[in-house]
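Good morning,

Attaching, inline, the backbone tokens for the sequence recovery test we're adding to the shared suite. The designed sequence is right after.
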């Protein structure tokens, strides 16, 4: 991908987020989006080599509208300031976890997993973690997982890397507060992320690095997806 061109355009959108400006620069948007979609296509080709479950996906199944839904938002800016693609076997709106790439000025990242789960599924995932603790630890405390996503149990989206975007302050009701690995029961989602430099997505070399991160997180995602899929 021509990440420099993409991010330059997104910065211009941030500074000129209005319809008249966008219409004047529509051709540049189309060129940037086409380039991004070519990158997504290459990512799909790479992921399918180790996760055949996404083999049926096309680029259009993974990308999002650039136009914001402002109906219920105090921010009436008509356009997003990022481009993202979520490569999930069950679709973008599924609870099933997937792979995500995100290009945004000063906030590029790679992520894996699922962001939002209802309470009943979270409870089932927590029970599964307690019933198969050794397997879970092999997923989330492996050398590769910790390298890309570990090191900060209270990480937020703005931190360089982390696991669990939202967490309960205490142990969830019905679970043992003194359990050795209670921090994993406090998770409200199973999403791990790793921020990358703005030149990360330049060219094609990023595919190798993304594959390393995706592979490192896939066992965790498979563990939770095995529970989630019983509900979908």
């Amino acid at each position: 991908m021509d990440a420099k061109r993409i991010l330059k355009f997104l910065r211009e959108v941030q500074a000129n987020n209005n319809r008249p400006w966008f219409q004047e620069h529509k051709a540049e948007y189309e060129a940037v989006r086409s380039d991004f979609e070519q990158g997504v296509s290459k990512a799909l080709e790479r992921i399918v080599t180790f996760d055949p479950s996404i083999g049926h996906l096309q680029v259009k199944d993974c990308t999002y509208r650039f136009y914001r839904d402002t109906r219920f938002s105090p921010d009436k800016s008509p356009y997003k300031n990022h481009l993202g693609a979520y490569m999930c076997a069950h679709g973008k709106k599924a609870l099933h976890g997937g792979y995500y790439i995100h290009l945004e000025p000063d906030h590029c990242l790679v992520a894996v997993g699922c962001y939002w789960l209802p309470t009943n599924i979270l409870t089932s995932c927590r029970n599964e973690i307690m019933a198969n603790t050794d397997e879970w630890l092999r997923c989330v405390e492996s050398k590769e997982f910790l390298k890309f996503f570990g090191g900060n149990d209270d990480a937020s989206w703005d931190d360089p890397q982390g696991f669990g975007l939202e967490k309960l302050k205490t142990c969830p009701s019905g679970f043992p507060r003194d359990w050795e690995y209670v921090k994993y029961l406090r998770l409200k989602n199973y999403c791990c992320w790793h921020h990358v430099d703005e030149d990360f997505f330049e060219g094609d070399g990023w595919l190798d690095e993304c594959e390393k991160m995706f592979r490192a997180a896939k066992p965790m995602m498979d563990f939770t997806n095995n529970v989630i899929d019983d509900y979908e």
